[in-house]
Specification:
InterPro entries: Kinase-like_dom_sf, Leu-rich_rpt, Leu-rich_rpt_typical-subtyp, LRR_dom_sf, LRR_N_plant-typ, LRR_R13L4/SHOC2-like, Plant_receptor-like_S/T_kinase, Prot_kinase_dom. By secondary structure, this protein is an alpha/beta fold. The protein contains 19 helices and 69 strands. The strands form 10 sheets. The protein has a 32-stranded mixed sheet. It has an 8-stranded parallel sheet with strand order 32-34-36-38-40-42-44-46. The longest helix is centred in the last third of the chain and has 33 residues.
Length: 1213
C-alpha cells in the first residue's frame, strides 16, 4: 500500500510526467476525474443514469457529459456545465479543490442539489461564471466567495440560502451580474457593494433583507438593473440613486420604505421600469417623473402617497403600465393622461380621486385595462370610453357616478369584464350591451337603474356572471337569458321584476348561483328548473311565487343554499330535497307547504340552518334530525306538527336555536334537551306538552331565551332555572305550574325583556330577590294565587316598563314610586287588599288612635306634631340636597350656576325605559365619567366601567358630541340605536340601551371581563392557545354572519378590529361596537375615525365611505391573521399582492410564543389562514360572504391543508 503522502506526491508528478494511454490520466488530471466520479457515486440512482457517460474507461474530455477541457498537453477541466439534468444529491459532496486554477465556469443550475455551497469553491481563483440557481441549496453565502477576484457572473437565485450577504462581496471588482433573489438571505445590504464599479445587474429581491438601502449604491456607475423588491428594507430611498445615469430598471417594491420619492429619480433618463409599490412612501408624486421619457412601467400602488396626479405624467408617451392604486391621491384625473398613447393598463383604484373621468382617456386606443374603482369620481361615464376598442376590463365600481350608461360602451367588443356597481347610475341598461360578445362578467348592482332587462343580453354567449341586484329594474325576466349557456351566476335580487320565471332558464345548465329574491315575481316555478343540476345556491324568497317546488331541484347533489321563504308555494317538499345531503342552509318559512315531516326530510350532515316555520307540515318530528350533527338552528314553528320531541335532538351539540312553537306536540319535554350546551333560544310555546319542567334546564348555561308558555306543564318551577345566568326572556305562562316561585329566579340578573309566569297555579309570596332584576322591562305574575305583599325591593327595579300582578291574593302597600303610581289599575286589580298611591287603589289606612274619648285636643296635638315633623323633613331634605350637590361639584353648571339635570325632552332608553334615575345611576357610578373609571377610548369616544345598584357591571361608551346637532340627528340616533338593541347573538356583546341628553350620549353594553382581543394578544400568549384562538376566529365569523344574513335589514359593523372583539372569562369572543358608525352624521368630525381603524380598513371603505358587508369581510381577514400571528399582520397584508408575500412560509407567521400546532390543529390553522387570505382580496366581489366563511370554519373535519407548517407557503392557501 502506498502511503497517502506518497500518493499525493505521485499525483503531483503526474502533472508533468507522460502517462500511459490506458489510464484516466491520459486525458484528464486523475484528481479531477476521481473527484467527479466520487461525487457521481453520491448522487441518487436516477441522477447517476444522467451521467452514464462518466465511466473510467472513456476519455473524460471527449466523452463525459458537461466537461470542457483545456488544450493539450495538460487536459484540465475548464468548464463544468450540467444545467437542468435533474441531478439529486448534495453539492458539498463535490470536492472542488482539484479544479484550481483551471476551472473558469461552473454551471449546476436547475437541478435538485441540496446542502451548503462547498468551501472548496474559494480555491477556484480563475472562476468567471458561477451558476447554482434553482436548486435546494441551504446555509449561508460563504464569505470566501469574496476571494474570487475573477468572478464576473454570479447566480445563486431560487435556493434556500440564509444568513447575510458577506461584506467581502465588495472585493469582487470584476463582478458584472449578481443574482441572489428568491432565497432567505437576511441582514443589511453591505455598503461595500458600492465598490463594484463594473456591476451591471444586482438582483436580491424576494429575500429577508433589512435595514436601509446603502447610499453607496449611487457609486455604481455601470448599473443598469437594481432589483430589491420583496424584502424588509426600511428607511428612505437614497437620493444618490438618482445619480446612476444608465439605470434602466429600479425595482424596490414590497418593502417598508418610508419618506418621499426623491425628485432626483427624474434624472434617470434611461429608466424604463420604476416599481415602488407596496411600501409606506408618503408625500406627492414628483412632477419630475414626467421627464422619464423612456419609462414603460410606473408602479406606485399601495403606499400613502397624497396630492394630485401630476399632469407631467402625460409626457411619458412610451408608458405601457401605470399603477397608482391604494394611495390617498386626490384631485381630478388630469386630462393629459390621454396623451399616453402606448398605455395598456391604467389602475388608479382606491384613492380619493374626484371630479369627472376625462373624455381624453378615450384617446388611449391601446388600453386594455382601466381600473378607477373605489374613488369619489362623479359625473357620468363619458361616451368616449366607447372608443377604447382594445379594452378587456373596465372597473369603475364604488364611486359617485351619475347619469346613464352610454350606449357607446357597446362598441367595446373585446371587453371581458365590466364592473360599475356601487354608484348612482340611473336610466335603463342599453340594448347595445348585447354587442359585447366577449363579455364574461357584467356587474352593475347597487345603482338606481330602471327600465327592463334588455333581451339583447341573451347574445352574450360567453357571459359567466350577470349581476344586476339592488336596482329598480322592472318588467319581466327576458326568456333570452336562457341562451347564456356559459352563465354560472345570475344575481338579480332586490329589484322590481315581475311576471314568471321563464322556462328557458332551464337551459342554463352551467348555472351555480341563482338569486331572484326580493322582487315581485309571480306564477309557478317552471319544471325546467330541475335541469339545473349544477346549482349550488337557489334563492327566490320574498316574491309572489306559487305552485309546487321543482321536483328535482337537487338532482345534481350540489345544492347548498335553498331559500324559497315568504312566497305562496304549496304541496309537498320534493323528494330530491329529502336526499340532498349537500344542503347547508334551507329556508322554506312562510309558505303553504304541507306533507309529512318524516317523509319530506332526511339526514343532512352539512346542514347548519333550516326554517320550516309558518307552513302546514304535519306528522311527527323524525329522530333523524338528531343525525344532522352540524345543525345550529332548527325552526319548525306554526305548523301542524304532532307527536313528541325525539330525545335524539339532544345530540345536536352545536344547536343554538330550537323552535317548535305553535304546533300540536304532546307528551313530556325530554330531559335530553338539557345536553344542548350551545342552545341560546328554546321556544316550545303553544303546544300540548305535559309533565314537569325538566331540572336539566339548569345545564343550559348559554340559554338566553326560554318560552314554554301555553302548554299543559305541571309541577313546580325547578330551582335549577336559576343556573341559566344568561336568560333575557323567560315565559312560563299559561300552564298548570304550582308551588311557590323559587327565589333563585331573582338571581337571573340578565333578565331584560320579559319574565312572565302568569296564568298558572303558583302560590306563596313574590320573592324579594326580584329586586335584583335590575334590567327587567316586563313582569307578569297575574292570574295565580300569590299571597303576601309586593316586595318593596321591586320599587328599585327602575328598568320596569310594565308589571301585572292582577288576579292574585296580594295585600298590603304597593311600593311608593313614580313607576307604580303610573301602573294601570287593571294590572293591580282583583287582589286581596292592595293599597297605596297607585291608580285605582285605596290609600293604606293609618294606625287607629289609642281611644275614641281623647277628644278634639288630641286631634289638634296630632296635627301640630305632623306640622313640626313636616318642617323638620323639609329641612333634612334641603340639607341632603345641598350635600348631594356638593358631592357632585365637578358636574358642569349652566349659566345660572345650577348643576345640569336632564330636561324632560331628553331621551333615556337604558334597558328601554324612560326616566332620570338610570341617568343618575350611571353618572354616579362613573363619578361623572371620571378618568379613573376609564377602560378604553377610540374615535367615537370613551369607554367606562360602571357598577350599578345591585352590583350589575356594565360598560358605558360615551360618544363624543356632534357639531351643530339637529333634531333630525337626535331622531336618527334614537332610531338607529333602537334597532341595534334588538340584535341578539351569543357572539355579539349585548347592547342594553342608550341615553341621549343635551349634555351627552352614551351606550350601555354588557361588560366583558377579559377585555379586548388586542389586549389579550399583547399581554401574553399562554392563556390563548391554538384551540382557543381557532374558537375566537369562529366566534367572530358567526357574529358577522348573523349580522349580515340574519338581521333585517343587514347590519354592517364598519369598524371591526381586535380592539372591539371582546373576551369573557371563558375566552368566548363577542363583537362589540357594531353599527356605531351609523350613529354619527357622515359629515361630523367623528365620522372618519369611525369609518374604520387603520390597518383593518378595506380599501373601498377607507377611501369612499361606501359601506358594504364586504368591508367587514376584509376586516375579518386582518383580525384572523392577527389572531394566528399574535400581532397585527400589517407587513404580511401589504406583501400579499406580491410574489414575496406568496412565498412566505406559514411557519414564519404563526405566533412564535406558542408551541407549534400539532398536525391536527395545524390543519385547522391552515384552513383559517386560507380563509383569511381570501377575505383580504383587493376586489370586494372576490371575497367570500361571512355566511360562507362561517360555514367553512364550522365544518367539523377540515380537509388536511398541510403536514408541517414550515412546508406551506401563502401561495398554497
Amino acid at each position: 500500500m502506498i502511503p497517502c503522502r506518497s500518493l499525493l506526491l505521485l499525483l503531483n508528478l503526474l502533472l508533468v510526467l507522460p502517462l500511459p494511454t490506458t489510464t484516466i490520466a491520459s486525458s484528464l488530471l486523475p484528481s479531477q476525474a476521481q473527484a467527479l466520479l466520487l461525487w457521481k457515486s453520491t448522487l441518487h440512482d436516477q441522477s447517476q443514469q444522467s451521467l452514464s457517460s462518466w465511466i473510467p474507461s472513456t476519455s473524460p474530455c471527449s466523452s463525459w457529459l458537461g466537461l470542457t477541457c483545456t488544450k493539450p498537453p495538460l487536459l484540465l477541466v475548464s468548464q463544468l456545465n450540467l444545467p437542468g439534468l435533474g441531478l439529486s444529491g448534495r453539492l458539498d459532496a463535490l470536492d472542488l479543490t482539484p479544479f484550481s486554477p483551471s476551472l473558469s465556469s461552473l454551471d449546476l443550475s436547475s437541478n435538485n442539489l441540496s446542502g451548503p455551497i462547498p468551501p472548496g469553491i474559494a480555491a477556484l481563483s480563475n472562476l468567471v461564471e458561477l451558476y447554482l440557481f434553482s436548486n435546494r441549496l441551504s446555509g449561508a453565502i460563504l464569505y470566501q466567495l469574496g476571494q474570487l477576484g475573477s468572478l464576473s457572473r454570479l447566480a445563486l437565485y431560487s435556493n434556500n440560502l440564509t444568513g447575510p450577504i458577506p461584506p467581502s462581496f465588495g472585493n469582487l471588482t470584476s463582478l458584472t451580474l449578481a443574482a441572489l433573489y428568491g432565497n432567505q438571505i437576511d441582514g443589511p445590504i453591505p455598503s461595500e457593494i458600492g465598490n463594484l464599479g463594473n456591476l451591471v445587474g444586482f438582483d436580491a429581491s424576494d429575500n429577508l433583507l433589512s435595514g436601509g438601502i446603502p447610499r453607496s449604491l449611487g457609486n455604481l456607475a455601470s448599473l443598469r438593473v437594481l432589483s430589491l423588491f420583496g424584502n424588509r428594507l426600511s428607511g428612505n430611498i437614497p437620493k444618490e440613486i438618482g445619480g446612476i445615469a444608465g439605470l434602466v430598471q429600479l425595482q424596490l417594491a414590497s418593502n417598508f420604505l418610508t419618506g418621499s420619492i426623491p425628485s432626483r429619480i427624474g434624472n434617470l433618463a434611461m429608466l424604463q421600469i420604476l416599481s415602488l409599490e407596496n411600501n409606506i412612501l408618503s408625500g406627492g408624486i414628483p412632477q419630475e417623473l414626467g421627464e422619464l421619457k423612456k419609462l414603460q412601467v410606473l408602479s406606485l400602488g399601495h403606499n400613502n402617497l397624497t396630492g394630485p396626479i401630476p399632469a407631467s405624467l402625460g409626457n411619458l408617451t412610451e408608458l405601457s403600465l401605470l399603477y397608482l392604486f391604494n394611495n390617498q391621491l386626490s384631485g381630478s384625473i388630469p386630462p393629459e393622461l390621454g396623451n399616453l398613447v402606448s398605455l395598456i393598463n391604467l389602475v388608479a383604484s382606491a384613492n380619493h380621486l374626484t371630479g369627472p373621468i376625462p373624455a381624453a382617456l378615450g384617446n388611449l386606443t391601446n388600453l386594455k385595462r382601466l381600473y378607477l374603482d373605489d374613488n369619489r369620481i362623479s359625473s357620468s361615464v363619458p361616451r368616449q370610453l366607447g372608443d377604447l376598442g382594445n379594452l378587456t376590463a373596465l372597473n369603475i365600481t364604488a364611486n359617485s357616478l351619475t347619469g346613464t350608461l352610454p350606449a357607446s360602451l357597446g362598441n367595446l367588443t373585446l371587453l371581458a369584464y365590466l364592473a360599475l356597481y356601487g354608484n348612482q347610475i340611473s336610466g335603463p341598461i342599453p340594448s347595445e350591451f348585447g354587442n359585447l360578445v366577449n363579455l364574461r362578467e357584467l356587474h352593475i348592482s347597487d345603482n338606481v337603474l330602471n327600465g327592463s332587462i334588455p333581451p339583447t343580453l341573451g347574445s352574450l354567449r360567453r357571459l359567466t356572471t350577470l349581476a344586476l341586484s339592488n336596482n329598480s329594474i322592472s318588467g319581466p325576466l327576458p326568456s333570452e337569458i336562457g341562451d347564456l349557456q356559459s352563465l354560472q351566476e345570475l344575481i338579480l335580487q332586490l329589484n322590481n321584476l315581475t311576471g314568471p320565471i321563464p322556462p328557458s332558464f332551464g337551459s342554463l345548465t352551467s348555472l351555480r348561483d341563482l338569486r331572484l329574491s326580493g322582487n315581485q315575481l309571480s306564477g309557478s316555478l317552471p319544471p325546467e328548473i330541475s335541469k339545473l343540476t349544477d346549482l349550488v345556491s337557489f334563492e327566490v324568497s320574498n316574491n309572489h311565487l306559487s305552485g309546487h317546488l321543482p321536483p328535482d331541484v337537487c338532482a345534481g347533489r350540489l345544492l347548498e343554499f335553498f331559500v324559497v321563504s315568504f312566497n305562496q308555494f304549496e304541496g309537498e317538499v320534493p323528494r330530491s330535497l329529502r336526499s340532498c345531503t349537500s344542503l347547508i342552509r334551507a329556508r322554506l318559512e312562510n309558505n303553504r307547504l304541507s306533507g309529512s315531516l318524516v317523509d319530506g326530510f332526511g339526514v343532512y350532515p352539512r346542514l347548519l340552518y333550516i326554517d320550516l316555520s309558518f307552513n302546514r307540515f304535519s306528522g311527527d318530528v323524525s329522530p333523524d334530525w338528531g343525525r344532522c350533527s352540524n345543525l345550529t338552528s332548527l325552526r319548525i314553528s306554526a305548523n301542524e306538527v304532532t307527536g313528541t320531541i325525539p330525545p335524539e335532538i339532544g345530540q345536536l351539540s352545536s344547536l343554538g336555536v330550537l323552535d317548535f312553537s305553535s304546533n300540536q306536540m304532546t307528551s313530556e319535554i325530554p330531559g335530553e334537551l338539557g345536553k344542548l350546551a350551545s342552545l341560546f333560544k328554546l321556544n316550545l310555546s303553544n303546544n300540548q306538552f305535559t309533565g314537569a319542567v325538566s331540572r336539566g334546564i339548569g345545564r343550559m348555561s348559554n340559554l338566553e331565551y326560554l318560552d314554554l308558555s301555553s302548554n299543559n306543564l305541571t309541577g313546580t318551577i325547578p330551582t335549577e332555572v336559576g343556573g341559566c345566568s344568561k336568560l333575557r326572556w323567560l315565559d312560563l305562562s299559561s300552564n298548570q305550574l304550582n308551588g311557590s316561585i323559587p327565589f333563585q329566579v331573582g338571581n337571573l340578573g340578565s333578565l331584560q325583556q320579559l319574565l312572565d309566569l302568569s296564568r298558572n297555579r303558583l302560590t306563596g309570596p313574590i320573592p324579594s330577590q326580584f329586586g335584583k332584576l335590575v334590567m327587567l322591562q316586563d313582569l307578569d305574575l297575574s292570574h295565580n294565587s300569590l299571597s303576601g305583599s309586593i316586595p318593596s325591593s321591586l320599587g328599585g327595579v327602575v328598568s320596569l316598563s310594565s308589571i301585572d300582578v292582577s288576579y292574585n291574593d296580594l295585600e298590603g302597600p304597593v311600593p311608593d314610586t313614580e313607576f307604580f303610581r303610573r301602573v294601570p289599575s287593571a294590572s293591580l286589580s282583583h287582589n286581596k287588599g292592595l293599597c297605596g298611591r297607585a291608580r285605582g287603589l285605596a290609600l293604606c289606612a293609618s294606625p287607629p288612635p289609642p281611644a275614641r274619648h281623647r277628644g278634639r285636643s288630641r286631634t289638634m296635638l296630632l296635627l301640630l306634631v305632623v306640622l313640626v315633623l313636616g318642617v323638620l323633613l323639609l329641612v333634612v331634605l334641603a340639607v341632603g340636597l345641598y350635600l348631594i350637590l356638593l358631592k357632585r361639584g365637578r358636574r358642569p353648571a349652566d349659566e345660572s350656576g345650577n348643576v345640569e339635570t336632564p330636561p324632560a325632552r331628553d331621551t333615556f332608553a337604558v334597558w328601554n325605559f324612560d326616566g332620570k334615575i338610570a341617568y343618575e345611576d350611571i353618572v354616579e357610578a362613573t363619578e361623572d365619567f371620571d378618568a379613573k373609571h376609564l377602560v378604553g377610548s377610540g374615535g367615537y369616544g370613551s369607554v367606562y366601567k360602571a357598577v350599578l345598584p345591585g352590583d350589575q357591571v356594565v360598560a358605558v361608551k360615551k360618544i363624543r358630541p356632534i357639531e351643530d346637532e339637529s333634531h333630525e340627528d337626535v331622531k336618527s340616533f334614537r332610531s338607529e340605536v333602537g334597532a341595534l338593541t334588538h340584535i341578539r347573538h351569543r357572539n355579539i356583546v349585548k347592547l342594553y340601551g342608550f341615553c341621549s341628553t343635551t349634555r351627552c350620549k352614551f351606550l350601555v353594553y354588557e361588560f366583558m371581563e377579559r377585555g379586548s382581543l388586542a389586549d389579550v394578544l399583547g399581554g401574553g400568549a399562554e392563556d390563548l392557545g391554538w384551540d382557543r384562538r381557532l374558537g375566537v376566529v369562529r366566534d367572530v365569523a358567526h357574529a358577522l354572519a348573523y349580522m349580515h344574513h340574519d338581521c333585517t335589514p343587514p347590519v354592517v359593523h364598519r369598524d371591526l378590529s381586535s380592539k372591539n372583539v371582546l373576551l369573557d372569562l371563558e375566552f368566548k369572543a363577542c363583537v362589540s361596537d357594531f353599527g356605531t358608525a351609523r350613529l354619527l352624521r357622515p359629515d361630523s368630525s367623528n365620522w372618519t375615525a369611525l369609518a374604520g381603524t387603520r390597518g383593518y380598513v378595506a380599501p373601498e371603505l377607507a377611501y369612499t365611505m361606501r359601506v358594504t358587508e364586504k368591508c367587514d369581510v376584509y376586516s375579518f381577514g386582518v383580525v384572523t391573521l392577527e389572531v394566528i400571528m399574535g400581532r397585527h399582520p400589517g407587513e404580511l397584508v401589504s406583501s400579499l399582492a406580491s410574489s414575496s408575500g406568496q412565498n412566505v412560509v406559514l411557519d414564519d407567521v404563526v405566533d412564535c410564543r406558542l408551541p407549534p400546532p400539532t398536525d391536527e390543529v395545524a390543519d385547522s390553522v391552515g384552513l383559517v389562514v386560507g380563509v383569511a387570505l381570501r377575505c383580504l382580496s383587493v376586489d370586494p366581489q372576490s371575497r367570500p360572504s361571512m355566511l360562507e366563511v362561517s360555514l367553512e370554519l364550522t365544518a367539523r373535519n377540515p380537509p388536511p391543508v398541510f403536514q408541517h407548517c414550515d412546508s406551506v407557503k401563502m401561495s398554497d392557501m
